[in-house]
What we know:
The protein has 315 residues and is α/β, with parallel strands linked by helices. It has 2 domains: 5-123 and 303-312, Nucleotidyltransferase, domain 5 (2-Layer Sandwich), CATH 3.30.420; 132-297, ATPase, nucleotide binding domain (Nucleotidyltransferase, domain 5, 2-Layer Sandwich). The protein is built from 9 helices and 12 strands. It has a 5-stranded mixed beta sheet, sandwiched between helices. Strands 10-9-8-11-12 form a 5-stranded mixed beta sheet, with helices on one face. A two-stranded antiparallel ribbon has the order 5-6. Helix 8 (271-284) links the parallel strand 11 (259-263) and strand 12 (294-297). The longest helix is centred in the C-terminal third of the chain and has 25 residues, at 231-255. The protein is globular. The two termini are 16 Å apart. 46% of the residues are buried.
Amino acid sequence: xxxxxxxxxxxxxxxxxxxxxxxxxxxxxxxxxxxxxxxxxxxxxxxxxxxxxxxxxxxxxxxxxxxxxxxxxxxxxxxxxxxxxxxxxxxxxxxxxxxxxxxxxxxxxxxxxxxxxxxxxxxxxxxxxxxxxxxxxxxxxxxxxxxxxxxxxxxxxxxxxxxxxxxxxxxxxxxxxxxxxxxxxxxxxxxxxxxxxxxxxxxxxxxxxxxxxxxxxxxxxxxxxxxxxxxxxxxxxxxxxxxxxxxxxxxxxxxxxxxxxxxxxxxxxxxxxxxxxxxxxxxxxxxxxxxxxxxxxxxxxxxxxxxxxxxxxxx
Length: 315
């Protein structure tokens, strides 16, 4: 069977990654450039077009189904990147219409979390599912909701902000301006904050991360310490899993999906995070859903997930 191709683009605050994606979910060729090197939107668009041209030329100029773009605050309904605080030069950029004119091909835009959900549906573990949710743990917490194999977008295209549902009333201040959001307890930042709070509450700590300042901490460091038996690091992941499992149980009460997929850097901690998450999920799940919903890690390769998700917008 002959394969078709799509271009997937993941626009981040630091780098923009592009890939030529085959219809079986293989990213055959990749390229990237620093997003911040582009002084304004015109320079950025020119760089995108040049990079796509190079990708196609290097691969024999295959015909593509289109270009999919995942970006912070990318809006599928408007085709624009809207008010993206970490991409000021691209805010309110109608990137879909601009690139369709420049490239002469179909272009779709979505926020990165929704793109990840489509990637899971087209290329990953949700190929045979009707209803599922993806939760992406990173600097923040993103989520994508698929009902009857359609993304849930809401009236303005920005539905599905599970990371900004309040989990702890009057809890930690969140970047959204409220307090106690899921993001503040289960993101990479949240994991570090939990460790710091636990360490500050102790009379003394002489564990494996004793020499590290608050600013030097990362989920990876905390996971490595936990795997080597550091009690405070183990407790940090136990608390994180408790909050994540509770958040997932709340998601099920609203949406009753078949599965919830977790992805993002903190999931690389494996059982350290998953075991307490699954336990908390079972403890807090409404009884009518017991045994009906699974939580598992994304089936997409971590390095390709964002590009595959973007490509899935046009696949």
